[in-house]
Design a protein that fits this description.
The structure is a homodimer. Chain A contains 15 helices and nine strands. The first copy, chain A, is an alpha/beta fold. In chain A, helix 1 packs across helix 8, helix 3 packs across helix 8 and helix 8 packs across helix 10. Helix content of chain A is 46%, strand content 14%. Chain A folds into two domains: 220 residues, 3-Layer(aba) Sandwich (Rossmann fold); 91 residues, Rossmann fold, CATH 3.40.50.1100. At the A-B interface, helix 2, helix 5, helix 6, helix 13 and helix 15 of A face helix 2, helix 5, helix 6, helix 12 and helix 14 of B.
């Protein structure tokens, strides 16, 4: 059975829906950092997106594609935090009630912000409960439409607008990237962006970026089959803790990705510090792994032009200050 | 004697020179913060500008306007840090050697970055030496062209592109701001932006924003004459420590500004924390005073649409972490 996949047309349609609602984030670069790297590094700062991560894009596209009746009944989502905020904001902006199922140990700022957007938050213990089941039960009981975190064509198309914008701005500036590195949890951002980037740059290397211990996509790209990580450890990169790639997202990534980069927590934290110093951006640990892959040489920048997506910036101030003080 | 003043045409010409070199920074907003404020706050994040502050704009415009011979001989500037980096970067990008005179207690990151851009840095003690005199001597000895920090038509026109971009994006989005708050040291950014903003929005309130103790422009706007502050204390807002408004900048500000807002250090630090939380931006203390003026109610947001310029983000990581941890 050949599953349908979002096309570049679907991503352009999503961009049309998002126009005037989402921030078109600019590509940033630091000539000083470029000099150190011996190449050109462009950063796509999705931490500046509404709700502090790219997740708003997919959620808004998905909810806008529901029928009026579905929207009026409401939506339900599960998320460790960034998707939660994206759904809550998109639901509010489109007039849909929202319920969000979140792990009880999600960063405080993410839970607080989700509630502030008017969503009802249902928490669960990260170990021992299945959030998909909880969300499915709530959906059935209340007649709510699910807004999946990544494995959905409308979500993939929405997140793909990040890649579409990268391609458009590179085109405007006469830049042809040699490689693009994209943070990867379940694979919505990477697969959607890959569709848009591959359409614009047939020869560009495309890399997912994941934290050590949660490198299910990198391993799956190596083997060609979806790998599930069963011995997953706690990680500071809370935004990227999917144990296995999505079926739809992986079908796309397997076709379009060059390979998966993997970085250590230390490299992610150092990338947060680099985002602070060179780009004046607040990056959260998971949001910094693609930048880390470029800075650490996993995706080489020397002699090349590389784009790295900083996918989110939702990190508690106290933790941020602690990490910044401890970065090398 | 009627001094010439930059016109909107000069600012548009500066924007043309900067095109492809400076970042066109997007207006950002946080609906969550808007709800708290009961109005609409748009932030112009000039911390994302090349070299981490708006200063690159004026320096680049000034150096591009020199003759080829002048550029080949080189430029000299004095600065507590952000102008230094802006001049160093603009000089490098236009092929001009640069000497920058900096106080020895300027933030380390600003001195380091200025050197990294290839400029020769000459330091002096902040008390007891006159940096203008030192710079003038170096200019005379070596035949260098001065790049003044603010009181110069080309500098004013370059910084004015910030206001021009605000007006353009507001126009695109159908937004008519009720007020714009702009960080003010010597007045280059505020006066240049005021020319562009007044041309677009005849009825908009325009406010300079300064830190307590360094409110020379606010006091000068009240009295109508340039006030000099003689009892100036050390301030965490190192970017804004001009003891008196520029002659040219004040002539413009006196005509165009509604009034000057003044904020405490505590309010500036809280605005840095708000920039972190709501906008994922690294703001330096001086760069946050216009945002602080809006958050603290000095420039009221309730029931209105207000734009605040975050003018820079060059703050050492250790100090940033300390301030963030201590913000209320």
């Amino acid at each position: 059975m050949a599953a349908s996949k979002p096309t570049i047309d679907d991503i352009e349609a999503a961009a049309g829906r998002l126009a005037g609602h989402a921030v078109v984030t600019p590509l940033l670069e630091s000539p000083l950092l470029n000099e150190t790297l011996g190449g050109r590094l462009l950063v796509k700062p999705e931490c500046l997106q509404l709700t502090g991560s790219f997740k708003f894009r997919g959620a808004f596209n998905k909810i806008r594609r529901l029928s009026d009746g579905q929207r009026a009944r409401g939506v339900v989502a599960y998320s460790s935090g960034n998707h939660a905020q994206g759904v809550a904001a998109a639901a509010r902006m489109t007039g849909a009630p929202a319920v969000v199922v979140m792990p009880e140990d999600a960063p405080r700022i993410k839970i607080e912000n989700t509630r502030s957007w008017g969503a009802e938050v249902v928490t669960y213990p990260r170990r021992g409960a299945d959030r998909e089941t909880i969300a499915a039960e709530i959906a059935a009981e209340r007649g709510l439409s699910p807004v999946p975190p990544y494995d959905d064509d409308d979500i993939i198309a929405g997140q793909g607008t990040v890649g579409l914008e990268i391609a458009a701005e590179c085109g405007d500036r006469g830049v042809t990237p040699d490689a693009v590195a994209i943070c990867c949890g379940g694979g919505g951002l990477s697969s959607g962006s890959a569709i848009a980037l591959r359409a614009a740059f047939p020869d560009c290397d495309l890399h997912t970026a994941e934290p050590e211990g949660w490198d299910d996509t990198a391993r799956s790209l190596e083997t060609g089959e979806r790998v599930r990580i069963d011995d997953a450890r706690p990680s500071i990169c809370d935004a990227l803790l999917a144990p296995t790639p999505g079926a739809r997202t992986f079908a796309i990534n397997r076709e379009l990705m060059t390979s998966g980069a993997v970085v250590t927590e230390r490299q992610a934290i150092d990338a947060m510090a680099a985002a602070h110093r060179f780009f004046k951006l607040v990056a959260e640990p998971g949001g910094a792994v693609a930048l880390a892959s470029a800075l650490a040489g996993e995706v080489p920048v020397a002699g090349r032009t590389v784009v790295a997506v900083v996918s989110g910036g939702n990190v508690d101030a106290a933790l941020y200050a602690e990490l910044l003080a401890g970065a090398s």
